[in-house]
Amino acid sequence: MEQLLEQIETYKKEIKGFAATDAKAAEEFRIKYLGTKGIVKAVMAELKNVPHEKKKEFGQVLNEFKIFAEEKFESLKSSTSSLEHPTSNIDLSLPGDPMPLGSRHPITLMRNRIVSIFQRLGFAIAEGPEIEDDWHNFTALNLHEHHPARDMQDTFYVQQNPDWLLRTHTSNVQIREMEKGKLPIRGIYPGRVYRNETVSARSHCFFHQVEGLYIDENVSFADLKQTLYFFVREMYGKDVRVRFRPSYFPFTEPSAEMDVSCFICGGVGCNICKKTGWVEILGCGMVHPQVLQNCHIDPNKYTGFAFGMGIERPAMLKYGINDIRLFSENDVRFLKQFTSAI
Ligand code: PHE
After folding, report:
1. Residues with Cβ < 8 Å from 202, sequence gap 6 or more?
2. Which atom in ligand 1 lies closest to the alpha carbon of residue 170?
3. For atom 9 of ligand 1, which residue has the closest CA?
4. Which of 118-122, 247-251, 336-340 has the lowest mean pLDDT?
């Protein structure tokens, strides 16, 4: 009898240490311990050899042993079956995980708004390189060698090649489109530009522009004004007033800057418009004949207009953003605030 009790203790240790990684091993356990020819049955059969007065006590031990083996089997079964049937532990009635959706960058939103207005007038999008050569960024645009815009202060040059630079405006795309030699041209050119300026809340060393170009026979300043009037109406609403101020760009003649009546204060005067009632939004003019010639276009046959505007400023005004650096800091708390259909 002592021997049998020892034997049971050994089995218990065995059972305790039994590990199963799959359902097959769990089944092997069942056959070995709980099957019809298994150990539990065999041990139970010993009861008949136990003296009468010890039967009750021994019966209890055997019963506990049986339960011990059965419980082990249950736990082996559930741990291995969940591995093989991964869905069995999943509550299928739970709602699905929402798919995290990003949002568009405010600069992209404003860019798309501007571009889509001109697309409706038949302007086609084109893009050009951000690393540009001197010809496309300056020389072809009539910026003579000593023009202040070429100053090292303003332009980032590429060290390996003094002819290469980071474009200072999207006007390089004008030149590239004109050089293709396919006329007429009606294009809208968005993109990133670089200027060597101290980074602050109001200015950055890179920002974004949208430039437009229209070249055909008989294109006049009246066409330019009408196109921009349409743009302003679509962009800021029909109540906004427009004014042109004479200006100077080497690549347009005549040149103008266009202001709109302040859409924040309605023209009364506020901090945004510096109490003038007007906000400057773009530069424009008739393409200089020399620029046409530089691109092998006959200025006696063709004329055209061009305009260019920044994207940051209108975006800041529209969304009430007071620091230009926020656009490029990639702070998700900032970025996720902008949602719009375009
Ligand atoms: N390229 C000019 C700028 O960067 C804008 C401009 C474009 C002006 C086209 C006139 C015509 O300021």
Report:
1. 324
2. 1
3. 307
4. 336-340
Does a structural domain hold residue 91?
A: no
211 lines ligand 1 (CB under 6 A): yes
| Pairwise pLDDT comparison (114 vs 52), residue with the higher score | 114
pLDDT digits (tens, 9 = 90+) for 105-138: 999 999 999 999 999 999 999 999 999 999 999 9
Domain count of the chain? Answer: 2
H or E stretch at 108 = helix 106-119
What CATH number does the domain containing 300 carry?
3.30.930.10
Tell me the residue range of the domain where 60 lies. Answer: 2-84
Distance between CA 9 and CA 148 in Å, rounded?
Answer: 97
Helix/strand/coil (H, E, C) string of 182-234? CCCEEEEEEEEEECCCCCCCCCCCEEEEEEEEEEECCCCHHHHHHHHHHHHHH
Q: What is the pLDDT of residue 84?
A: 54
* Alpha carbons 81 and 77: distance in angstroms, whole number: 6
Inside any domain, residue 8:
yes
